[in-house]
Design brief:
- Strands 6, 7, 8, 9, 10, 11, 12, 13 and 14 form a 9-stranded mixed beta sheet that branches.
- The chain has 2 domains: 99 residues, no CATH class; 127 residues, Mannose-Binding Protein A, Chain A, CATH 3.10.100.10.
- It is α+β, with helices and mostly antiparallel strands.
- A hairpin with a 2-residue loop joins strand 6 and strand 7.
């Protein structure tokens, strides 16, 4: 007989743990189809297949770089037709969404993607990369024109005075061949200003979103040690 075992104490902990602020510790919880605890459990008979192995991993962002709060939940089951699997997947989605909503940084959701707009201080390209990584994110890469227009629309509405915004684009590896350093992918669309990139003084190797006038946004190459605002993004 296949058993789905539900530990009520575990579920209560699961729904509340997203409210915790993670510190410098790392815990590993394993919730298998046979419950580790006796209290608050029930079983439903189905068939003989082993159930999914549940894993909740909590720790600092160095250990769990893909989580803004140092928490990750997953299981090893891959049977998408199993109704219990679907229930499991919905619970995972819920916990992960709560993790994002309760990030230590105020994330903005644009078209299903999550961003942190660094408005209140400026730094160079490399320290911007470091800041994003330390907070479980990546410096902005622009994969589509739609994503770029969503970013520009947000800047126009909420941060109209921003003139220089770092992205993760760079041609430091090969002059003229820009890649998104956060993903390693080549830049597959462009929105350069007229005559750009120009590698002025032979030192401009990092890609910014620049603004001139009221609403004229465009890409520009700049010296990587220039200090600008920047945008971090949370990758799924």
């Amino acid at each position: 007989m296949y058993k789905i075992v539900i530990n009520l104490c575990f579920l209560t902990t699961l729904l509340n743990v997203t409210l915790l602020k993670m510190t410098k510790f790392s815990l590993l919880f394993v919730f298998a189809s046979f419950c580790l605890f006796t209290g608050g459990t029930s079983s439903l008979p189905t068939n003989d297949k082993p159930g999914p192995l549940w894993i909740i991993q909590m720790g600092n962002r160095d250990n769990l770089p893909n989580s803004p709060r140092g928490m990750m939940i997953s299981h090893n089951s891959v049977d998408s037709t199993n109704p219990y699997q679907l229930m499991n997947d919905k619970m995972i989605d819920y916990v992960n969404s709560q993790t994002r909503k309760n990030s230590l940084l105020p994330l903005e959701e644009l078209n299903g993607n999550y961003y942190y707009f660094v408005k209140y201080f400026k730094t160079n390209f490399f320290k911007a990369m470091q800041f994003c990584k330390e907070n479980g994110m990546d410096l902005l890469s622009l994969e589509t024109g739609e994503e770029y227009m969503a970013i520009v629309s947000y800047l126009k509405k909420h941060y109209p005075k921003a003139e220089h915004i770092w992205t993760s684009g760079t041609d430091a590896g090969e002059e003229g061949s820009f890649v998104w350093l956060s993903t390693g992918r080549s830049v597959n669309f462009t929105s350069w200003g007229a005559g750009l990139p120009d590698n002025s003084a032979k030192i401009e190797h990092c890609l910014e979103i620049a603004r001139t006038g009221v609403e004229n946004y465009y890409w520009n190459d700049r010296a990587c040690n220039s200090e600008y605002n920047f945008i971090c993004e949370l990758r799924e």
